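[audit] Reproducing an earlier prediction to check determinism. Same input, same settings, fresh worker. If the tokens differ from the archived copy the diff job will pick it up downstream; this log only records the rerun itself.
[audit] input (729 residues):
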Amino acid sequence: MASPFHIFRKNQKLFMALAAIMAIFVFVFADMVTSQLQKSTSGGQGSPSATVVTWDGGSLTGRELEILRQRRYFISNFLGALYTQGARTILNEGGTPLDPSVPSFVFQQENANPRTVMLGTIETRIIAQIADKAGMTVSDEMINHYLREFGLRKVTDPQIAQILQKTNRADVGHSEKQLFAGLRELLLQNYYMRSYASAVQNVMPEQRWDDWQQINRRIALEAAIVPAENFLAEVPEPTDAQLQELYDEFKDQVGNLPQSVAGVQLTSPDPGFREPQRVRLQFLLGDVNEWTEKLLDTITDEEISDYYERNKRTQFVKVDLFSGESAPEEDTAEETEEETTETKEETTEEPADDESSRIQRANPFRLAALQEEPAEEVATEEETPKDDSEDDGDGEDNDEEPVEYEPLEEVRDEIRRHLANDKAVVELDQIMGRAYAELQSEYNRYGGELIRAKSEKREAPAPPAKLANLDSAAAQLGVIHEETALLSYPELLDTFLGKATDAQTSRIPVAYAAFVKSQMELYEPFLAQDLDGHWYLAVKVEDIESSVPSLEEVRDRVVAAWKRREAAKLALERSEELAKEAQESGETLVGFFADKHFEVITTDLFSRLTFGTTPMEMRRGARLGEAPPLASVDLDFMDQAFDLEAEQVAAALNHDQTNAYVIRLDRREKTEEELRQLFLLEANDWFGGQIMRRARLQSTQRILRGQLTQRAGLDLTKLEEYLKPDRQQ
């Protein structure tokens, strides 16, 4: 069968720029797939050879699902490199690269976690099959057109082949087949979903006005707080039948789970009696700050002086505090550019053996020991030094003011700390990498023994001492050794350790890996790093499965949950009575509650929805607004608040049912007429309009995807063995 690409030239010279960009991906995906396949021999529940997903006309085994997931990562990374290559070409030609004219299948950061990707591949497979049955097709020519457009029409077929080779360590032919198979399914899904999009593409004026108001209409409330716990004493003891009913309803649910409400995480009001899966981890902590302190005394005065002389023109120019300007320095920009080039050249040098697959985080300070000797400065015509005989005798340059630098003594400690920090980063990188390699070697031997014992139906061997207890490793390396308590998924995710992500891809949090057997088995080492650069080498030493206790075992918890729910009802009833009395009185809430022993506050101005304050938040779209200092307000509360007329009083329960609120409109930021005038002025170019339309389209598509997979009879019951944190997320 002819290749979908028109021509692949042999022996094409590799592009160094692409090599630099793609280096991080070269060592990732084959290892991840290999590790999954190695675990497939374990059998039993959650075995990759077992069918874990079924639907009408299709099914997937765990192994097939893992391969689809890794293929999806591969496609995202390939397309990212393809666009980068095209954009760089346009920039080199003096142009400005735009977004591709075709759909993008490159992951956004928030959509790249393994669980989301895995579920997405299932959805894509089902909808692609539906599209195929509907008569839609995607030819090789269409995929070639897609690739040309995604590369901004600036990437040739031989260059595409090189990107494929760099993105996936398999041969180009295999990578090409995977790419075309994956893109065919993604494009089929996209085309099928787009056939439904026209119904929501056009936005009526009334919808635009409603969207604009939700962001721009702002109010402040008077609110009296009526705590639900104040009514616990009034709640009678529950009957056995009432307890049984509550237990049966929530026995399979874990309690205290967050719920996503219009893009905001709020604590669920529902109880849960299932015992969540819990794990215990031991870990080695390479604390960059601690190591920086250790290494301060190793920094010599010569290193500090050398660093100061090399960098004083770019980092230590004295600033005039009154004018806000530094002394003029004509060659600063030129030298900065030279240093940037020098840094890039250092980055692309062949790394040491211990660091060959690792990329260091950028740091404005560089180790003095790693810097090259400064090149002799070549004077330009404008900078030709004067002959001594031409000196006017005053010893000063009449054309330029002298540059003043911060004295070395004043910045000595600052330089010492930064150089020590750089050394700490390098040393911890090497130390933790070697420790991981040693523990991984121990685990590989242990894993082989486990497989043999299972196949021979023998008792599992005891784990190696080095994996069961990290004390000796910590003492040998000079790092911290700690052990967690038994933690559920949310509890672990709330720790620094749980938030740290794998050192290879910076994609998989420790918390996720610890609760998914396909990511971290018992005693399997996991190397991770957090945003501050601290290293974690974690080993799971205990894993207790989720279980459902009997009613008698959790009777006290069920009684307490029943009473809290009843107390919330009483708090709301009392709030409704107070709201009616307050409205009849015509007083403000401050006046009405003056002698009633309830706290009354006035909120800040707030809107029903908000885009947030950072560019990242704005890109994510509108989310539920807040009404500080009120806690856990939800959409129902917002509906009641923004429906209030002047002097009207209402009662509302917060989302987690800990408080009921008596609310009264305090003020509006703008009158109705002012809002309408402002809307007419900016309606056509309001930045939020496109975001709101996109959100409406995405919401409609989510609903449609759910309906399509439901009609297809999608059954995810058996997938829980692969997605253990499901109940706890």
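[audit] rerun output stored. Observation attached for the diff report: Residues 16-199+706-728 form one domain.
[audit] end
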